[in-house]
Amino acid sequence: MGPSPAPSAHHPTHKCSLPLHVRTKPRSLRVSPWSSVTSSPATVLETERLVLRHFTTDDAGFILELVNDPSFIANIGDRGIRTRDDAVAYLLNGPIASYERHGHGLYLVSLKTTLVPIGICGLLKRIQFEDADLGYAFLPDYWYQGFATESATAMLEFARTALKAPRTLALVSPDNARSIRLLEKIGFSFIELRQLKPDGLPTAIYVYPPAIPLTVPVA
After folding, report:
1. Domain regions of the chain by residue span
2. Distance between CA atoms of 26 and 76, rounded to whole angstroms?
3. pLDDT averaged over the chain?
4. How many whole angstroms separate alpha carbon 167 and alpha carbon 210?
5. In this structure, are residues 148 and 178 in contact, taking their beta carbons and an 8 Å threshold?
6. How many other CB atoms sit within 10 Å of the CB of residue 213?
7. Beta strands in the chain, from DSSP E residues, in sequence order
8. In terms of C-beta density within 10 A (0-12 exposed, 13-18 middle, 19 or more buried), how is residue 88 classed?
């Protein structure tokens, strides 16, 4: 695969120790066990323990594992991704397309010391809402170690400082108590329950920062 594109003006690379600091070029990444990447995908954020970078199609193996984990299906949904080709199509039509279209998207989260991929975290733009929403998911082996909190906190700061976003939303199942606790811990406030799909269950909508009024267009 050819070199990954450099970060755009909408998508600077940052090292995050809060506040964020602009990096002049992407960090050189070692190849993860899941990847055959021979060049370095663009790094977006670094925290104390994590690296968040652009996805490439070489990350399809990791995505295939993550989205078929029972916890992902239970809390986020079944994406119908069953093969590596399915995962490649998801990456091309989802995160990678979003970088170009919106200047942000979901990113691969890796351990800084080993660059082993452990989850995803980023911002999604949905047609139902004016504001982007925070999304994240991690493999169960990396739960209860603060990685979701660390990456989500950095992503909120990135949205505020780099993207100049006045608000960030979060959409979560009302039954997902663990995710709700995380959102409240990092400063989100509950707004409402909303039926996003005619045949779906209600979704809890949270907003950050809570002091800024939220306008949610009617679907």
Report:
1. 14-166
2. 31
3. 84
4. 9
5. no
6. 9
7. 14-16, 20-22, 43-46, 50-53, 106-111, 117-124, 133-138, 168-172, 189-194, 203-208
8. buried
Quote the tokens at residue 3: 């070199």
Would you say 207 and 188 are in contact if contact means Cβ atoms under 8 Å apart? yes
Read off the pLDDT band of 86 (50, 70, 90).
very high
Cα–Cα distance, 15 to 47 (Å, whole number) = 6
Backbone φ and ψ for 87, nearest 5 degrees, come out as: -65, -40
- H or E element that contains 183: helix 177-185
The model's confidence at residue 40, banded by pLDDT at 50, 70 and 90, is low
Report whether pLDDT(53) > 80.
Answer: yes
Break the chain down into helix, strand, coil percent, rounded to 5: 30, 25, 50
Task: Answer whether 104's CB lies under 8 Å from 10's CB.
Answer: yes
Q: In one letter, which amino acid is 86?
A: D
The architecture in CATH of the region 14-166 reads 3-Layer(aba) Sandwich (3.40)
Q: How far does CA 77 lie from the centroid of its chain?
A: 15
